[in-house]
Amino acid sequence: MESYTTYGRSRWSKAWWLIPAGLLLLGPEAIARVVTTIAGIVTFPITGEIGVEVNRYEIFNTELLMVYMIAAVGVNLIALPGLLSIGQAAFFGLGAYTVAITTVDHGWNFWLALAAGAVLSALVSVVLAVPALRLGMFTLAMVTLGYGIVFQSMALQLIDLTHGGQGIQGVAMPDAFADLESYYWLLAIVLGLTVALSVTVLRSPMGRQLKAVGSAPVAAESIGIHAKRGKLASFAAAGFLAGLAGGLYAPLIGFVSPESFTVDLSILLLLMVLLGGAGTIVGPLLGAVLLFRIPIEVNRVTDDPGNTSLLVYGIVLLLSVYLFPRGIMSLWWWVAARIRSRRASAVRAERARADIAQVVPAVETTGEGLRVSGVAKTLGGVKAVQEVTLTVAPGTVHALIGPNGAGKTTLLNIISGYVDADKGTVEINGKVLPQATSARARRGLSRTFQVPQLFDDQSCLENILVALDTRRRRSVLSYALRFPTALREERSQGDTAMSLLTAVGLSEHADVAASSLPPGERRLLEVARVVATRPSFVLMDEPAAGLNSAEIEELKEIILVLRGRGIGVLLVEHHMELVLEVSDDVTVVEFGKVISHGDPEHIRNDPKVIAAYLGEPAGAVPSVAARPSDQEPA
Amino acid sequence: MDQGHLLNVIIAGLTSGAIYGLLAVSYNVIFATTGILNFAQGEFLMIGTVVGAFLVVTHGWAMLPAVVATIALALLVGALSERLAVRPALSKGPNAFGWVLSTLGLSLVLRSGGALLTGNDIKAFPTIFGEGRWSIGAAFITPTQVSIILLLVVVGGGLWWMYGHTTIGHAFSAIAQDRDAAALRGIPVSTLGMASFAIGASVAAIAGFMAAPLTSAYPTIGLLFALKGFIAAALGGIPDIRGAIVGGLLLGLIESFGVDIFGAGYKDAIVFAALILVLMVRPQGIFGQHSARRI
Known about the structure:
The structure holds two protein chains of two kinds. By secondary structure, chain A is α/β, with parallel strands linked by helices. Chain A contains 26 helices and ten strands. Chain A has a six-stranded mixed sheet with strand order 6-7-8-3-9-10, sandwiched between helices. A four-stranded antiparallel sheet of chain A has the order 2-1-4-5, with helices on one face. Chain A is elongated. In chain A, 51% of the residues are buried. In chain B, helix 2 crosses helix 8. Chain B has a single domain (3-281), classed as ABC transporter involved in vitamin B12 uptake, BtuC (Orthogonal Bundle), CATH 1.10.3470. The termini of chain B are far apart. Chain B is built from eleven helices and two strands. Chains A and B meet through helix 5, helix 6, helix 12 and helix 14 of A and helix 3, helix 4, helix 9 and helix 11 of B. Chain B: This is Branched-chain amino acid ABC transporter permease. Chain B: Belongs to the binding-protein-dependent transport system permease family. LivHM subfamily. Chain B: It is found in: Cell membrane.
């Protein structure tokens, strides 16, 4: 992956994407030569030749490729939060038909028609996505596939509007770009802007958030990201780009007909992105070059072009799952990581170790705190939580203990908003909290999970940055335009994120993908991410599980710092030593009911607690401390 | 409309609905054990029609050996698909798109393979149980229609019974509920995943074979059925087998009445509108549980 320690600093290494963008300035012949060479290298084993003579036909092909690239960049934005569309050809077709119908039949100005097609396409995207996003990725994929099929059959059916199967002839290029040579420059401008948009989104806080939604939706909501809104925005942007590309396609080809916008084209656009590398800048462009050119190259040497190219596509895809399941660009990350690991050790030594106390901002300690009153929940006929009431005062640690299956995790899920309670309320300082998890997180309620939920595809530093991002003040636009204020904010967020990582001892892993951390460090990273959301109240679900004794010490230190800064902590934990050392208050639940409440000393000696835990009278620290905490059902 | 016409619309609806239902069943069988919705599912149906036509029409085989050979091929292709395309994708770490890439790739390979093997043209397929027809009042029903509807009842009902009443069925259900826990209790999760692909592929293929007299055989037949089978499954509630049966028949009726009222040109649009409506009103489907979110 890219180097993240250069956040916000203008480095030439971050501007390498200007190279492909700058290539566009070389003009149509040069670009045609570049793309035919790239594809020729891949197909050399089949065709035995690299590169072709650049004639008008190849320039036309190159311009068609550029049109598809614009749409593919849009598909990439959809893939970012983990979604798929198999209907982009129909959005593309919507743009193309809009331009054809309005300019040919109604004499509209081309530019107006182009804009109208793109906007219409974005609107239809939103209308389809709203119901589809209620279910998962596959439902959206099928809804878009259905839309693609319906679009084609409607284009055939609504003859008055679309001229049916015969299509609309004579779509003209706009005056200023009226021949193939000059039309290239229009496409170059639009493609350049599209790539710039993609770079901006991918590198902006918004891109990070979308990626986080894709890799761990539950965790993304727990730090305050409104997942659905982000998905909708990316889908609308993709619809816009597809419509725009379609609008540019119509005059390039000169006519539109239903056969141009098949499901195969949708799949092709999707595969360009997945093969090249979803979520990368260059991936979709490279994927487009390969998948567009390979059949053209292969067709020189086959009798049944259509089916042979489908077969080649299929084989390329199946092979890619073995060779580079995350796209061709993942090969580049692999190489880059090798190079970096050689260079990095020198840099690391410079970093000072930050004190955790300095990176946790103090919060207001006035008010009653987090109050859970009369909460009850029945799950599958079992009364998982019955009339539980408890209060976490600011600047205190409240431990929630009880045997496995006592309902602790369910209660935590109710408090953080993942599960609706059958009755009862959750409030902070007397105000009832909104239901959505992300809204609760933005009110200062943050949590960790029994099994740490990290954004695995992103670096450790990015995991922290995503959480910091929810408190940003600068708009996306100011990032897009690289305003100094936005760059300054990015830098200071980066520094904060780095010191948080340093505070939990993970600074050396800043650039490493979170997926590569061992279990104990995953947990510490998750705790650091919670701190980054600047919470007033933190819920921790068995944070000590899987930590070694040194890591538990570190965790204890962090919890005490949180308390010292005025943050209220609700701690679900089986590790009794830790519980008794850090807690101000302890609530014990069994079978969903509170059976005891008091300070640690009281709990330690409460016969009911001892009976519930051990079934036998005992002295000092209950020996459950040694028991490994296994997972309990939610 | 008169009664005979009404009955004819219903019979046509139930027939195409039975094909959608069978495909929905095959989606659910695979989804339950592997957790993926297979993009190549329609191509398994394509294998049934195209290979069936290849054997029966092109090479003059009798129906019985042809159907046995087609099912055997589908079992093999299904199992190989799981082993070569799906399992590697699922095992390559946290990449949500791996299986999409591989099942889409699989569908392209199967479709183009079918086309290269048998050609692109549409082949008519002879009836399997004869040309006759029975009259029901003023309406008619053909043996082909009866056989397709019966096939759904037998295959769907049989699988439903198997899931509820046999050890292997319980093992499938256990995997559907919690894959990791099932593996920990010694259930051979990946072998059963392969088995479910083989079963799912053969269910789709036999549906394609039996439907071929009505649909004819051509290599691109899979796509539309893949979509409609999915809509039927979504309607019924994934991955409930009863839901697939009911959802399929319901979708067939919706389509048949829609075509009768609005005309055949709007067939796909009507079906699609049904999907959007279901997603808005009851996203979990008819038999679906509103599952608690997994944390």
